[in-house]
Q: What sequence folds into this?
């Protein structure tokens, strides 16, 4: 088991990563001081629940914990306020009071939704995350929880740090291959924004990582969480530095939305976004040629690096202008300065963005 300590003052917490950790959950909960008297509500989705929910619950009840069980439908559409209200109702009926806590077993959807339930239920109770997707290594650090609004993704939410994260990498073996690749996109992102050594390590480990070798995958998750934790601990509420975590996401979110949610996975859209934004940095003269190396690494993980969907510049630019990250009407991008370093850049000309999009489609450099 590897452990990373996320340092954010009184709200610091450990992230444990390793194979077979679900079986150690009762002990790990005791380590953070949760006694068997604390009533627990295990929240999961129907797919993850069917695979792992019963075992986790049984282990805990065998060790004398009282655990309620709440299942939500799998998928992004569960991240909505009306479902949160139903879930709160289930908690109230189950007698969960202020001394209770939530266990969030699943991917980022369960983490965001159950985390927001924990943030708001009885004005806030603690929660522990049990991530089961690779992408959830991203959502397990930073404390962002929330739901979508019909007018925009993640529009309603809070900052609520988990008390602990327990990442059992054995669960990743049942993830569809496309979801695994998608998760690696965010791992690669964490390497690219902060740590050239981590990038080289990923380049060497791709094959082991793709077959989910427990040692390598635990190391990758540890390193990815470490980068995010370091950035977040310097800027918990996203006033400055934290924005570099949006690398690949300005173009990525535009692609994801314009293609229609579900046609590209989030990681696929971010992979394309990272290549596109690297091209944008090159076109703006902000960094030496890096986009080819970035594309090679992403492609080795099975991620797309050429835009083949028929989306116009206008559609994409319009989406980018509507992005939450637009400040004072200016498009702001997190752009690479080289491998391992990203800076915030604003006020870019639209013509440069068009040139980068053209290259992302496989067109000539400008
Ligand atoms: N809070 C944050 O900082 C943050 C960061 C990144 C992403 N997110 C959010 O995370 C969400 C995406 O997360 P995700 O990609 O984990 O999606 P997800 O939670 O929807 O999981 C993807 C699918 O895989 C299934 N699944 C999960 N684990 C499985 C396993 N081990 N075996 C088999 N199937 C499994 C799920 O049931 C689901 O159908 C988005 O809503 C995004 O906004 C949040
Ligand atoms: Zn992302």
A:
């Amino acid at each position: 088991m590897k452990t990373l300590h996320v340092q954010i003052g009184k709200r610091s917490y450990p992230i444990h990563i390793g194979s077979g950790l679900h079986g150690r959950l009762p002990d790990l909960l005791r380590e953070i001081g949760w006694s068997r008297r604390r009533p627990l509500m295990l929240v999961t989705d129907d797919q993850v629940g069917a695979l792992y929910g019963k075992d986790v619950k049984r282990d805990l009840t065998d060790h004398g914990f009282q655990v309620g069980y709440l299942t939500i439908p799998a998928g992004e559409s569960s991240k909505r306020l009306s479902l949160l209200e139903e879930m709160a109702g289930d908690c109230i009926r189950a007698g969960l009071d202020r001394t209770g806590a939530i266990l969030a077993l699943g991917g980022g959807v369960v983490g965001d939704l159950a985390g927001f339930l924990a943030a708001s239920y009885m004005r806030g109770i603690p929660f522990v995350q049990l991530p089961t997707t690779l992408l959830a290594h991203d959502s397990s650090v930073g404390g962002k929880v929330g739901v979508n609004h019909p007018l925009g993704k993640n529009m309603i939410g809070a900052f609520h740090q988990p008390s602990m994260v327990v990442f059992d990498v054995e669960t990743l073996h049942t993830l569809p291959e496309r979801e695994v690749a998608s998760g690696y996109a965010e791992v690669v992102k964490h390497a690219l924004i902060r740590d050239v050594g981590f990038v080289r390590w990923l380049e060497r480990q791709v094959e082991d990582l793709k077959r989910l070798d427990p040692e390598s995958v635990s190391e990758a998750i540890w390193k990815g969480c470490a980068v995010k934790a370091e950035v977040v601990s310097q800027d918990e509420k996203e006033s400055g530095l934290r924005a570099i975590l949006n690398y690949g996401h300005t173009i990525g979110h535009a692609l994801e939305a314009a293609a229609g949610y579900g046609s590209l996975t989030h990681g696929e859209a971010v992979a394309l976004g990272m290549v596109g934004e690297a091209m944008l940095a090159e076109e703006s003269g902000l960094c030496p040629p890096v986009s080819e190396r970035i594309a090679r690494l992403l492609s080795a993980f099975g991620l797309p690096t050429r835009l083949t969907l028929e989306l116009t510049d206008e559609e994409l630019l319009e989406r980018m202008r509507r992005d939450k990250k637009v400040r004072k009407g200016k498009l702001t991008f997190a752009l690479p300065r080289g491998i391992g370093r990203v800076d915030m850049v604003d006020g870019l000309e639209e013509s440069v963005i068009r040139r980068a999009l053209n290259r992302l489609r496989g067109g000539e450099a400008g």
